[in-house]
Amino acid sequence: MTRPDSDTETTPAGASGGTQSLERALALLRAVASHGAEGARLADLMSDTALSKATAHRLLTALARERFIDQDPRSRRYHLGPELDSLGRIAAARHRPEGEGESDVAAPGPATVQPTAFLRPDYQGEAIPLADLLCDRHARADGARAALLHESVAGQTTELSFARLSRDSARFAAVLRGLGVGRGDRVAVLLPKGAELLIAALAIWRLGGVYMPLFTTYSAAAVAYRLADSEARAIVTTGFLRRKIPRDNSRPVVMVEGDEAFGPGADAVPFWSALHESAPLPDIARYADRDAFALMYTSEAEPKPLGVSLPVMALAGIEQYMRIGLDLRDDDIYWNMADPGWAYGAYYGLVGPLLLGRTTIFCDGPYDVRQGYRMLTKFGVTNLTCAPSQIRAWHSADPEGGPHKLALRILSVVGEPLPPELIGWANRVVSVPLLDQYGQRETGIFMMNRYDPGHADRTADSSLGRPLPGFRVVILDPQGREAPVGGAGEIAIDVESSPLFWFDAYANDPGRTAARFRHGRRYYLTGDWAFLDGDGNIHFRGRASDAIVMQQAD
Question: Which residue spans adopt a coiled-coil conformation according to this UniProt entry (predicted)?
């Protein structure tokens, strides 16, 4: 079977393959540079950029043709080419401080971390227009593009364009401002998947606030804890879900019209009526890169749920994962089945698509295999990501027959290590590459393992794979020393060598924060145990926390 990202394009080598091809070529150049004078093997570059062999080789060939890359004929290692030297001299002459000679410019040393193309200026600094990054710029470029496709349980589809999302969120921002919401305020959003959720989130970000999703199946006690702990300034919910809000609540409540029969609503602000009566808020608040724009809480099962703040600088890691970890391409139809009330759904099902100007797909109700098949075929989904529980349900409902006439190109699973039988089933029946991925609420996804249908001889062991570019992952022994190959220990992120790492502290528990950094701020500890093999793969051996459970329900 031909791999989906193999050399099957009709575009001539060297011709422009679009924005994504350019970004991948730049990532390869940075990866070659990171290996310094020694040069890089093809296997090194594949690991550094998470590209397949076919894609990496195709891009390297094109770069070599233009003399941006050289390959040593004896060692077969790749080096930066002479064209980069000449272009660099031209650039240096323009940007060199006045009076500084060419000989004064120090030669750059080898990079100490894996490269990433997504540490953009857009995500850095003190004045980041978040609502523009996540919505308004897409509305200006192509306002008719769907920001959301919402599918009801009955199979009815409604669409929300980026232009409409921009207008409605500007109006709803005025509603929230009238309720006293301002910069840094946390707003609890207890809503099912739908247009109101996107509108509420964007409105909060227009005000410089913090979006705090509450999972709709939370108990009333879980909701009450999070409202009190976060000091939420306001609540957006429905009449049915309002029954989970404490009776003594004194915060302003905005309630989506339509199901008032399920609860009292006389004192609530009506969502749509208030929105349409308000003039759009003309200005957009600015964030600093370390400012929080979302607040996620850990599982309801935790004795004391922890608050994890998502800073604006995390957008770089979100884009890295969307483009490289999920291999999301410009022509993909992307569906993240995770609920946006959980970290994985919020990071990569809500924020990620908005950041890239892609369409979010929401489907009402709990997961149902038949409904899942309908969604996959109706929308022609090519890039699917889901929880292991959904794969198990899929397998149990139709273990060998499998789905038919699907457009799937790639399937990603996150939540826990997949057992070999499910990996084998997916490769055999779905017949697309399966990406098994590892991460935490505190970090986002930072490791990935790829299983390809064309490599059935590869054993589906408990390897978590390798880190994504932008992260350096190590195994620490009990004394906090990096373990050698084969040595068991705790999975940790080398913070100093991981430019995409963003977690700083829990919002509500300094003690638990200290435990994450108990060997000093150099290493973030996941609480999971593993060992490193000679090929750089990390093998999971036990869970000491809920580290890889980024979502528990669908």
Answer: none
